[in-house]
Amino acid sequence: MNFQKPKGTPDFLPGTVEKWQYLENTARELTALYRYREVRTPIFEHTELFKRGVGETTDVVEKEMYTFADKADRSITLRPEGTAGTVRAYAENKLYADPDVTKLYYVGPMFRYEQPQAGRMRQFHQFGIEALGSSSPALDAEVIAFGYDYCRKLGLKDVRVEVNSVGTAEIRANFRAKLLAFLEPMKEELCRDCRSRMERNPLRVLDCKIDQHRFDGAPSILDELDEECRTHFEQVRGYLDAMGVPYEINPRLVRGLDYYTHTAFEYKAAGIGAIDTIGGGGRYNGLVGQIGGEEHDQPGVGMALGLERVLIILEAQGVSIPEYAPLDLYLIGLGDRAEAETVRLVHAARAAGLTAEKDYQGRKMKSAMKSADRSAAREVAILGDDELDAGVISIKTMATGEQRKLPLGDFIRMLAEEKAGRQA
Ligand code: HAM
Fold first, then answer.
1. Which H or E element spans position 140?
2. Which class in CATH covers the domain with range 17-167+225-316?
3. How remote is the C-alpha of 178 from its chain's centroid?
4. Whole-model pTM above 0.90?
5. Helix 137-154 crosses helix 17-34 at what angle (to 10 degrees)?
6. Which of 57-61, 93-97, 160-164 has the weakest average pLDDT?
7. Which atom of ligand 1 sits closest to the CA of residue 281?
8. 327-417 is classed in which CATH architecture?
9. Which end of the chain has the least Cβ crowding within 10 Å, N or C?
């Protein structure tokens, strides 16, 4: 048998996994500053949640869900995104009872059945935040600023923020009619995707890269906004200006998910082939009511970044990512008694806060030294039976080649102190 992982899924091996830890650690540091707290929801949910939440006619629900029947014949779906599950958990656990804004975040795998390519996987990972319980435009601005800050904290350069207002469902219905009237005469000239989108989700037609040049005179949703939507959008922009978050208004920006109202936005960066969106989000007033019952409705706003895409761009931009913690000490025991003693010593070294490793393959001096070299240890400690009897141990500092003999009973404390000194 020759097993291979399913198409479009990752194995994150040592060497790569540290980069993921860096993405996640940085995410957690920032959520602490902004006061978002972690929520962990199931990897799978009832299919109905995504149909209702994300929208029946979206690509995600129509084409991309991993849906299956469980043993009791329930329809189950691997979560394609984090908002629907988070909102369900918020409603189901009555977090709406909190008089303050509920701020949640998640980092984890999502699943979409797509054609894999760079930055597009079937199992991918999102870092997302959701703020529930306020329709203040200041919260939209905070969420947009958060994603931008995250990119900056990681060291990403040239991230662009595009913002738009998609109004309310009613406004979109009016706009849809106007847009269709504009598109109808050119229908035959449009690409196949556009023609199919005209039927299912006409607002997304304006997103098309191929037919972009035909849309110069297209109606703009911003002209359709009512007073309330216009004011909300102006306030969001005002707050972004006040915070110094740079953004562009893109009146053609429509997101691929149905739940957005008012603000919609995306983070963009060049460097992953044809893909340039690394994250997105928006306001979703009404979604809590739809999922958890109208009587408990609460407004919400959130965003999610695709971490595969963030990582591809970090690497393309040559941003330095911290590596696996270096090794302080590698222990080699020569002779049976000395070898046995290194078992105790490596344990004591770790207890003293040193990263420590020993030889476990009973190697002779020469190949044990090669193994120590490969481990890139700062210090190699060699203990022979004679030294054990004399109560000393030989320490070699690999970078300089310097050798010294230290008291066996004290060398761990000394090395730990030296380490603390270097870090001070
Ligand atoms: P989304 O735009 O569907 O929004 O996904 C957010 C990000 O996830 C994308 O910008 C992209 O970086 C990443 N992503 C999506 N699909 C894939 C894939 N197949 N492979 C790799 N990365 C992918 C949402 O999911 C919303 N829930 C965001 C949100 C949160 N809105 C409000 N709150």
1. helix 137-154
2. alpha beta
3. 37
4. yes
5. 140
6. 57-61
7. 31
8. 3-Layer(aba) Sandwich (3.40)
9. N
